[in-house]
Please model this.
Amino acid sequence: MILILLVYLGVCGLIINRGVPKDLKKQLVHCTKGGDFTCIYCFGSVLINMFIVGIMCLAYILFVPANFSGPVFAALFTVVGFASNGITVRTSLPIMMGVFCMAFISGGMTGAAAGESFLKSAFAYTGTKSMVIAAVYCCGLSPVTGAYGVLAGFLAGIFHCLIVPSIGPLHGWLNLYNNGFSLGIVATFYVPILERLNKVLSKQKDMRVADA
Model:
């Protein structure tokens, strides 16, 4: 059912533009701090981007693998919706990989400490509902990748994975807000560091150019 809905979005995009939109490639590699894609690109291109982002999230859920519960379904289509407002595969995939790697290592080490198989425990933890939802919702940090690069996005995913399991006491264990609070905390403390580091590196680069 999810696949049918996603394919429907892609087909509608092709029909609206009577083929593959000319600006689709530009949109897929778009690195942005956010913005309404419907005002920047043609509507068909936006629908196809929503389809591609949805397929990425669906593929991750199937790879882990995880059960398709209501919260997982909601997280997937939330990200699909925001694929019209700045999220692309290029900006969100590094963050998802950061969440996956950190969850894999954390689950494996926890299992190994309890005398269980590292790989079995690692995959079991990455497939839990909380970690799957975290991996999907982490696409909300995609502007970090767009502004500061793939490595910065990967590290943002790691930080999000570390924070989100412990964020419950801040809001009384209302699961709806776990990822929102975590994304906000990561952005609040991580982005200023990236901005400062970026200024320092730019200044050093200018000094080297001046010396040359």
In short: The CA atoms of residues 27 and 144 lie 17 Å apart. Residues 2-211 form one domain. The chain is about 75% helix and 0% strand. The chain has one domain: 2-211.
